[in-house]
Amino acid sequence: xxAIPDQSAREIVAGxxxxxxxxxxxxxxxxxxxxxxxxxxxAFAYLDEAQAIAAAEQGEGPLRGLPVAVKDIIDTADMPxxxxxxxxxxxxPRRDATLVARLKAAGAFVIxxxxxxxxxxxxxxxxxxxxxxxRTPGGSSSGSAAAVAAGFxxxxxxxxxxxxxxxxxxxxGVVSFKPSLGVLPRAGVLRHCTLVDHPGVxxxxxxxxxxLVDALAGAxxxxxxxxxxxGSLQAAARDEAPPKLxxxxxxxxxxxxxxxxxxxxxxxxxxxxxxxxxxxEFAEAEAIMRVLMSAGFAQSLGDEIDAEGEAAAELLxxxxxxxxxxxxxxxxxxxxxxxxxxxxxKAQLAPFDAVLTFAAAGEAPLRTQGTxxxxxxxxxxxxxxxxxxxxxxxxxxxxxxxxxxxxxxxADLRLTRAAAxxxxxxxx
Length: 428
What we know:
Number of helices: 14
Number of strands: 11
Distance between the termini: 20 Å
Oligomer: single chain
Low-confidence stretches: none
Strand order of the largest sheet: 1-3-2-4-6-5-10-11-9-7-8
Radius of gyration: 20 Å
Structural class: alpha/beta
Mean pLDDT: 97
Order of helices and strands: HHEHEHEHEHEEHHEHEHHHEHEEH
Shape: globular
């Protein structure tokens, strides 16, 4: 029998429902795995074994017994949520984020709070990559990706404003999904910029992603951008119909490592995919994202960084200075450019169920080199488009490289069908 921490989320929930094991058994098995390997991986900012077991045993609902690691910028009323900031250690939110409340209402339990980069930005936490501890797990959802890769939790919640769900999954060799903007509600999640902040999920296969998102998605009165999905992601993931695919090298291709470019090109050739050329205007995406993110950061977190004073990392202070220095005219100009790119993206992506591109520049860099370049997720975060990272390739050192599958905003069902089709056929 497969060890409990290596079972899928669907297998765990089915096993508990059938009486093969109890929710407490699930919690204890995962906690044993964590005790054995957490000193190496350091995925958690907060962990309380007794609390996790009690929460598992008390849960009732269709996800009973499912352990979930939750990024430490997503509020939990019964656990600290410190945003990765030493100054906020021990911060206790008054209530759960909507996503956490929905998890608990469905019977799942939070096994622990996963490490995030400081304020979910540039300053990494202590988490290592379970595939090679000398390398970064990526940022800022570092602990969430590492927890799933190490078998500490079947699934995890993360967030992405720029590249913080797609890139860590690529580096850690797991599946991640950043749904279209609005699919997952954001009330109770640390805000950077409402125009581009996205919750996302990590799992070991696409069907587990769909299983979790179906339970969490839906309109929330506290997030005006949120809305109800038009169907079931799980049903889409089980659809065996071959998808219509294309591949692209976007304007930032030169920032991918040569081995990564060669691997993706060979993969696309194997599938005989049509090549899609984005129009030149997409080269502006990085500059537009910098304006929107920095302005949002200054508005939402400026007071926190001011309170830290000189103790705040220079990268944080520099971002704050830039955001505060932007004029209203510059912000509106960036927003109008974003809207122009959004219209172009919808037109170019609409004919395809999925378009394949890079999830990251290459294998995970050494931790001493930072958390990696987010550029290959930037464009799709800016568009609010759905995106998967699928662990389908490997690099020269045998470490995973994700293939990013993207689709037009709102095409989450079509994209999930395509991602599941690819994962079944090509994941090792």
